[in-house]
Structures are given as structure tokens and as C-alpha cells.
Give the backbone structure.
Amino acid sequence: MKRMFAYLIVGAMVLGVVTGWGLNHFLTADQASAAASNLNLITDIFLRLIKMIIAPLVFTTLVAGIAHMEDAASVGRIGV
């Protein structure tokens, strides 16, 4: 299963490179600029989703780390 995920990631990277090359090679400069601006919406959505998940992920990681500590006195040593 892990290997399949790696293949999907590599395939998506190759598809992105081929798409970028194709847009640059087969379209005029104005058409390529318009296509890039249309793809800009997708990239903005993706980056905003990544930014939205960072804070809850860090918070839950800290809470889970503190919850798994065996000694309650050691919580004070981590600087919380």
C-alpha cells in the first residue's frame, strides 16, 4: 500500500511537469498566461487548505504528546 502511494505521488509530479511543458510548448504566450491564471485558482485553494490544517495538527500533536507522558511532573519540563 505504501508503495502504491509513492507511485501515485511520482505520477502526479510527472503529470504536472508534462502539463506545464505542454501548455508552454503548444500555446501562445497569451493563451499560456490565461491558462496559468485559471490554474492559479486551484493552487490558491490547495494552499489555503494546507494552511487551514496546520494549526489543528500542531495542537493535537502537542496534546497527544502531553497525554502520553508517564509522569505529570515531566510536563513542566517541556516549557508549557
In short: The chain has a mean pLDDT of 87. DSSP finds two helices and no strands in the chain. The helical segments are 2-26, 29-67. The CA atoms of residues 46 and 57 lie 17 Å apart.
